[in-house]
Design brief:
Helix content is 18%, strand content 27%. It has 229 residues and is of the alpha+beta class. A hairpin with a 3-residue loop joins strand 6 (151-161) and strand 7 (165-170).
Length: 229
């Protein structure tokens, strides 16, 4: 080539370089465009990872309260008698019944065969003219207070006739300054001490009268004279 031709080629290259240097950024060739950075596996995993399930709170079973023991009160004694075992017939066929055991010196009061009161008593001395004969019959009329053998007695109920009248009554007493002085209280439930009547304490005699023994069947056992002589 000639020198003029080389000069033309160089001039064209210079023009081309200058032209490219002044092309605006928005019009650069696509080869120069910045490609987006692909997402890394780790970041994808983070985006698609299933969230860890939230722990469901386990409801603790409500404890059942231990029942508070119910305080059982002792039953109030009722008027209903309790059956008791005896060596004799308590006559459950009868609404009310009275039995005098001269062997033990006790008077027992029953309602339909069940004991309602055990009363210590003292029957007649084992002498031929003082012992209390065995007997069965209904309690008679109310005599109240009477005087015999130089002493008084209250709450007397007539039973039957022997050498004299046989009664059930309170302990005999004398009066000292209008005060009652009772005799033979220590014999009740222990030994015979009367002239034939059935003696009981003043307190039991008052209860016996309030219970109303009139017309009630009573049995008086054998006097057991050989035991008490």
């Amino acid at each position: 080539m000639s020198r003029s031709e080389w000069g033309l080629v160089v001039a064209l290259m210079v023009v081309t370089i200058l032209t490219l240097s002044f092309v605006p950024p928005g019009r650069r060739p696509e080869a120069f465009a910045v490609s987006p950075i692909p997402a890394t596996p780790s970041s994808t995993a983070s985006a698609t990872r299933t969230a860890t399930p939230t722990r469901t709170a386990t409801t603790r079973p409500t404890s059942t309260a231990t029942p508070t023991p119910t305080v059982t009160l002792s039953p109030t004694p009722s008027s209903t008698p309790t059956p008791t075992s005896f060596s004799f017939d308590t006559r459950p066929d009868l609404a009310r019944y009275i039995y005098v055991d001269q062997g033990t010196q006790h008077l027992y009061v029953f309602v339909e065969g069940a004991l309602v009161r055990d009363i210590p008593c003292s029957t007649g001395l084992p002498d031929a003219d003082s012992y209390t004969p065995a007997w069965t019959g209904e309690v008679g009329e109310y005599w109240g207070t009477f005087f015999a053998y130089e002493v008084y007695a209250d709450e007397a109920w007539y039973l039957y006739k022997s050498d004299g009248s046989i009664l059930v009554h309170s302990l005999p007493y004398t009066l000292t300054n209008d005060a009652k002085v009772y005799q033979d209280r220590d014999a009740l439930g222990v030994r015979p001490a009367s002239h034939g009547c059935i003696r009981i304490s003043p307190e039991d005699a008052a209860w016996f009268t309030s219970w109303g023994p009139g017309g009630v069947l009573m049995t008086i056992s054998d006097p057991h004279r050989e035991k008490w002589q």
